[in-house]
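Need a sequence for this fold. Nothing fancy.
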């Protein structure tokens, strides 16, 4: 039997609709990948392997480690099932018990009971000159450094931190494709609306090509667009200092091979220094007065230019 990695997902911070209310979602604190069973199962979906057990959370405390296999969740076998279905079982209310059947690399097997814990917030590294906090129920990618893998032609130095709403991948959720990201560029880059549009056109065209390669479709890059205008009526601040505020829309390709148009707001601040420029991007299908934006704005307002 030959196993290959099929798909992975961070379970520390990616709940699904209907599993628990926003203020009562819980996690056991593991990241997993599903394995591809090349020989046996018609679906080719095998067991799941633990990539990481987050220190201080339930799984790590119970002795689950990277490299362990999970073959059943609450007594229901994993092989042959969709990963999203498995995750639906794993997440749930804080304080509720989850049972995982775990196989260690040495072949020993045990059933481990875990109590779901609150999601710890995402905070940026202490080495950053600024600070922010994002609710732990949002999914987080690892920090991307420029040149970005999907847009290497962008001529900057710095990094991007991406965070996705709890129901980001669910097409029937009002949160679908709602996300935010912080960006830090070395030097002073107070982009105008035209410069921002050019930046995001390159960014999302590259992302469209990557999504097409990963999901089996060929995107028409001419359908990617970015339209912004500067909010000249307000006196915006970001991180406690004056900022440039822009709003508009971006039309992008989603992972299902469809174009969607997101409402977007961007704040840009030099944080009172020439060393770096801080950016905040909010993106959502929801109109600006929608509930999703209350969450996005709350994260934005946690940002501070200095620690």
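Here you go.
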């Amino acid at each position: 039997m030959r196993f290959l990695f099929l798909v992975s997902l961070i379970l520390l911070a990616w709940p699904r609709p209907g599993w628990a209310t926003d203020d009562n979602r819980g996690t056991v604190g593991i990241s997993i990948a599903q394995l591809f069973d090349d020989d046996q199962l018609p679906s080719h979906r095998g067991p799941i392997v633990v990539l990481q057990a987050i220190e201080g959370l339930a799984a790590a405390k119970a002795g689950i480690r990277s490299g362990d296999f999970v073959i059943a969740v609450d007594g229901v076998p994993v092989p042959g099932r969709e990963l999203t279905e498995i995750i639906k079982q794993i997440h749930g209310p804080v304080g509720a018990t989850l049972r995982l059947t775990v196989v260690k690399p040495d072949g020993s097997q045990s059933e481990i009971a875990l109590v779901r814990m609150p999601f710890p917030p995402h905070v940026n590294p202490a080495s950053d000159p600024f600070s922010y906090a994002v609710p732990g129920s949002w999914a987080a990618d690892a920090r991307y450094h420029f040149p970005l893998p999907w847009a290497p032609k962008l001529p900057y130095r710095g990094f991007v931190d991406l965070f996705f709403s709890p129901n980001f991948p669910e097409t029937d959720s009002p949160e679908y494709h709602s996300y935010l990201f912080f960006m830090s560029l070395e030097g002073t880059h107070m982009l105008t609306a035209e410069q921002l549009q050019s930046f995001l056109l390159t960014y999302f065209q590259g992302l469209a090509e990557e999504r097409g390669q990963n999901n089996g479709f060929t995107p028409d890059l001419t359908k990617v667009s970015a339209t912004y205008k500067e909010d000249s009526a307000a006196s915006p601040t970001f991180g406690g200092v004056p900022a440039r505020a822009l709003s508009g829309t971006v039309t992008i390709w989603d992972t299902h091979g469809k174009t969607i148009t997101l409402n977007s707001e961007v704040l840009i601040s030099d944080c009172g220094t020439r060393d770096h420029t801080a950016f905040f991007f909010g993106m959502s299908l929801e109109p600006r007065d929608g509930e999703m934006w209350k969450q996005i704005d709350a994260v934005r307002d946690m940002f501070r230019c200095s620690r």
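For context: The longest strand covers residues 259-269.
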